[in-house]
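Run log, item B.
One chain of 191 residues. Sequence copied directly from the ordering sheet:
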Amino acid sequence: MPKILNHDKMKKASLIFAWYLMFATAAFGQETFTLFSKDLGGGATKTQEFNGFGCSGSNQSPQLSWKNVPQGTKSFAITMYDPDAPTGSGFWHWLVFDIPASVNEMVTNAGNVNLNLAPKGAVQSITDYGIKGFGGPCPPEGHGFHQYIITVYALKTDKLGLNENVSPAIVGFNLWNQTLAKASIVAYYKR
């Protein structure tokens, strides 16, 4: 016959379990640095597609927001990269850095440098299209789906010390050297 615990022992066991559950949640349930977009689901659209280079889209950069910023973050950077481009080295579509640590969002079309929608102080450097600001997806027709990896970087410096004319490779090297954490989303697109 099973032993029945008295009320005090059950109460003590419940408290121990509650303490364990609280500890486990605190230790293992920490929220991570996360990137979101109101404009993108699983894929890009004609709204984000580049206008030029054989494409006729609206070339609007997507809205982006992030949360659970790591402690010690002094600025942010954002990139959009296509590893499937038939170039031998992928294709950089957007590079923004020196975004102040107080910012947690890029509004829709902030990648259009002529509209001044990016946060004050942010630098949008040259893409592989040879332009500054956002250059949307434009995969070759019939090449299948390309993945566009959009990444926000939490950086341990407030400024990268670079200007708007720097190449994507130099931006990437400096991001690698200054990154505390990063979060990405992937949008797919084909023509």
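Observations after the first pass:
- The domain at 31-189 is CATH 3.90.280.10 (Phosphatidylethanolamine-binding Protein).
- The mean pLDDT is 90.
Flagged for discussion on Thursday.
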